[in-house]
Amino acid sequence: MNRWTGKASSLEDWLDHLRKQPEIMANVTHWHTIPAREAKTADLPADLHPKLIEALNIRGIERLFTHQSAAYRAVRDGKHVVAVTPTASGKTLCYNLPVLQSLLENESGRALYLFPTKALAQDQVAELQELANIMEVDLKTHTYDGDTPPTVRTAIRNAGHIVVTNPDMLHSAILPHHTKWVKLFENIKYIVIDELHAYRGVFGSHVANVIRRLKRICKFYGSAPQFICASATIDNPGEHAERLIGERVALVDNNGAPTGEKHFVFYNPPVVNQQLGIRRSSVLETRKLASLLLKQGVQTIVFARSRVRVELLLTYLQELEKGELGKKTIRGYRGGYLPKLRREIERGLRSGEIRGVVSTNALELGIDIGQLQACVLNGYPGTIASTWQQSGRAGRRQGSSVTFMVASSNPLDQYMIQNPDFFFNRPPERALIHPDNLLILIDHIKCAAYELPFEEGDRFGSESLTDMLEFLVEEKVLHRVQNRWYWMDQSFPAHNISLRSAAQENFIIIDRTEGSRVLGEVDRFGAPTLIHEEAIYIHEGVQYQVEKLDYPEKKAYVREVNVDYFTDANLAVELKVLHVDREAQSGSLVRQYGELTVNAKPTIFKKIRLRTHENIGSGPIHLPEEELHTSGYWFSFNEEAAAGKGTNEMQCALLGIANVLVHIAPLYLMCDPMDIRVVPQVKAVHTKRPTIYFYDRYPGGIGLSERLYEVHDELVRQAQSLIASCTCLSGCPACVGPIEEVGLLGKSQALELLGEARAVL
Amino acid sequence: MSGLRERMNRLRGASPQSSAAEDEAENRPLQDSDRLKPSEEEPEDRLSGEWSRMQVRTAANDWGSFLLREVFYPLDYQHGTHRLMELIDASAALSAFHRGSEETPAPSAYNMLFLDLETTGLGVGTGNVPFMVGLGYATFDRFVIEQSLIRHPAEERAMLAYLAEKLKNFDYLVTYNGRTFDWPVLAGRYIMNGLGRLDSRLLHLDFLHPSRSIWRNTLTSCKLSHIEEERLNIKRHDDVPGSLAPSIYFQYLADGDPAPLEGVFRHNEIDMLSLACLAIRFAHLLGGRLGIDVPYPEDQEELLRTGLWLDKMGLTDLAETLFARLADKDVPTGSWCLPLAARDKKVGNWERAVLLWQKIALSAEASALPSYEAHIELAMYNEHRSKDLPSALRYAESAMQLALRRPQSRRNDPKLRAELEAIANRLERLRRKQNKGNVN
């Protein structure tokens, strides 16, 4: 540390200095150092085309990393491949090398690349084009997406060697017009699917069906392409790839890329109110740490979980531009930015002109921004896999890097920050998809029938195809002649089917106090209870009253108010078990998995006076009931465990346990916490006992509750340990919930109930 | 099967509407037409009386069978403003569409095939099936309309193979919007049916684009049905609109009753005749028969657009006679003036361009919300071509005055601001030039 400038000579030096600062270290709950790792390399493949060898040499590549070499070998052996690689390990060569080699051997060959977003596709084309230019071969690589001008589309369809697109475009533009793509489909050798882990849940289930359709079309044109997939580190890359593409795959995971030393620092903001378990704002702590780094001249990326937080942190950090850092050196990055602006920011990051960037998970995917030195995570990103992806943005092949994870007071964050072993020693989440979800499947059977008639004996998914086709005949969209089914309808089915789940659509909250400005967002499921008309919505400590909820348009209009109450809505949830598929018992807990229907309707809201919590009035909520038929898993306590508890106590205990479970369930699932719901019932209709239900928030289910059923024991154990290790006195938002919700004894009741239930184990 | 329906209904939230169609189907009494279900119950080569009343017979080839309806018109048949026989003398003028393709003989009444598809949907996606192919062509003594129809999608291949044979006899394909619709749809269907690539030797005459060039500002729509009514004096009676054709066909697939298809046949038949008349109309325009076989357009805009189109087709002399009609007479200025002046400027016909601009400039100065484009053109002309700086300056100054008469409310309009700025720059430059000239 230079005494005069206050600047450290290196990141290591600065980290040493940081370790001597007690006011920071008091909040550091864990400091994990991952040692530097040497590169593991292999010779360039012997059969590699001389032009390709030369191009690699010009790019400074004399040898391959072991995973690149293994992927090349496996592809050349004719296998479908999934390569699992962390950020910045040169994964693109895993697929570009065999594809380019094949095109050099036979220029009539074709390849299709799929990326989840347009931005990634454009990066890829730039990289491929650069290699082609070095080799001086006429290799045509094009993006084909919504931005592609109609004038060049024909040329791409006929002459593009490598067509780079996204699943949505494949679904709605390419497959339904496959006769315009004869050249591609007749000659297609490879299908590259990058960011495989992004295709999970509902989106992934749709994409798996789009791939089924793609394979059908390829077969029609007499081709059988090989799949080359690349995925971030997840628990089940091989299985996930196999489910997604419906083929056996060879797994390549011998990462040989070198990394510098990496520091992973868990940072928990200090408690400011012991009784209520409230910690200092994670946003302010993130700002503090990021400012320290930026002032040191360390290029830093800050990840925040919502757009609003990105903007907030950006505003705070841009104050630094007035001081030591120049104008436009700290930028934001998120979905709403225009492509041109994004490209500019990416370039600025690569060149180093931009010193700091605040981003949503938009930068988590493989967009090329070079490698930064430091990363600050505002809140746990939600999954272990994302955390590693985001943290991977900091870390060069040489030299140290650091990631700070600043926990919020949400239970999942608190669990992670207090259980570093869980984070460092457990495999990341599993990516789950359920391509045979009936609703998703039938939609894609329609699209597939539009693309090519079905024939008796065809297969598409695991359901009986003939039944599905006959159903569509009855629905009058298919027409059967002998043993063939033809699309016979005026509509274009792909237009009505979006691959991205509608559940991702949020309600926007618009403040009309002065003019109108967007205040924030609430997810679709939270809307009925949080922003019904007359609700008090609290945003950054300011009260707003909802004046109008435009349900179809997904907008809530609010106005600032100053009242001495808050509102609490009752949501009547009715669960009906239709069918039990699986059942098991551990300890005194009986658990079941099966199909159920959920009817949810907000009924009334109560006005509750601040501080005294007396009920000072109520009103009705007029919103439609929502019915959901889905899959679920539930477990119930037996009489002994429930003994000695009154209904009220049981209610608090169950609610407390449910509050914890809803937050830690995502530990086992690669899903958004909103995709799964937890409902406690003191006396459930189905079991007649105190029961906690989990269900998938998507019609037909997408496999989430089934996975939870399988890890039930582990799930309950983690819940118990989280509550037990929380430092609050009697319940806080980081464990069973605030005492306003679960009562003064909520925490102890919940622990007691879990303790007794598990004691028998 | 019923299990699947139950599950689907549950997942979809079991709305009562979703099963309404089913109930309706079940409660419907058995109708005569139920016994007419196509293919299985009826030998394919024996058609019911209903079909033969509609002049429909079966046709067959190596790929299977389908239905064919043939209708004949005498060549002196008058359809709206034209007789079909006009094709014989007029058609050669259509060669203006394909200059430079000398290896193909010029269009004649006998080497043009008129084509129009009826399909099950919109767009050129792979699920859109042409269930009826309408063809029209002239022979030495009559005009033939051949319509093929498939009784179910499995007959499509035979019908397409028949069409491929037919195409070999012609050099030109005549359509309305066939470039972007009928032809790509057919090309896709050939691939889907494993028949390979569709013969692309034929030259295409698609009259949609020329129709748009001429009528886009004078007719509310450039649909064939609208043009034939407004410009070819063709009146249809009891026409089944083309948009209903798919549902009529689906109904036929469901109940096997051919009767309602008659309306579709008739509609397609008239389309073929209208297409032939449109070909005659364009042939006359290109053959210099305007004012002889076709009356001059009453509307100046249409006259202008016809002239500009002929000009674009390389028939400058013909275009010029139309322009002369516009410019020479004491026609009051109209929206046609500026485009014509622009065209004259482009080809270097300065004399008339200046005349037109002056005409426009005069009338603009008298109007309440004047446009100043002509003033700017004149300023440019005088600055760069006639080198008359004082006149150039005078026109630029008037342009500025006129522009400033625009209401205050529009001042923030970026387009107007940019224009004002451009005029100011021009004024400044002209003044500078003039001063320099004075000094010298």
From TrEMBL, chain A:
Domain Helicase ATP-binding: 72-252
Key word ATP-binding present: yes
UniProt GO MF annotations: 3'-5' DNA helicase activity; ATP binding; nucleic acid binding
Example GO biological process: interstrand cross-link repair
Pfam families: DEAD, Helicase_C, MZB, WHD_HRQ1
PROSITE patterns xref list: HELICASE_ATP_BIND_1, HELICASE_CTER
Gene3D superfamilies: P-loop containing nucleotide triphosphate hydrolases (3.40.50.300)
Stretches assigned to the Helicase C-terminal domain: 288-439
Record key words, sorted: ATP-binding, Helicase, Hydrolase, Nucleotide-binding
InterPro entries for the chain: DEAD/DEAH_box_helicase_dom, Helicase_ATP-bd, Helicase_C-like, HRQ1_WHD, MZB, P-loop_NTPase
PANTHER family linked: ATP-DEPENDENT HELICASE HRQ1 (PTHR47957)
Name assigned to this protein: ATP-dependent helicase YprA
TrEMBL record, chain B:
Gene3D superfamilies in the record: Ribonuclease H-like superfamily/Ribonuclease H
Compositionally skewed regions (Basic and acidic residues) per UniProt: 26-48
Record GO terms (molecular function): nucleic acid binding
Residue ranges, annotated region (Disordered): 1-50
Cross-referenced InterPro entries: RNaseH-like_sf, RNaseH_sf, YprB_RNase_H-like_dom
Pfam families attached to this UniProt entry: RNase_H_2
Entry-linked SUPFAM superfamilies: Ribonuclease H-like
Domain YprB ribonuclease H-like: 113-279
PANTHER family membership: EXONUCLEASE-LIKE PROTEIN (PTHR38462), YPRB RIBONUCLEASE H-LIKE DOMAIN-CONTAINING PROTEIN (PTHR38462:SF1)
Full protein name: YprB ribonuclease H-like domain-containing protein
Upper taxonomic lineage: Bacteria, Bacillati, Bacillota, Bacilli, Bacillales
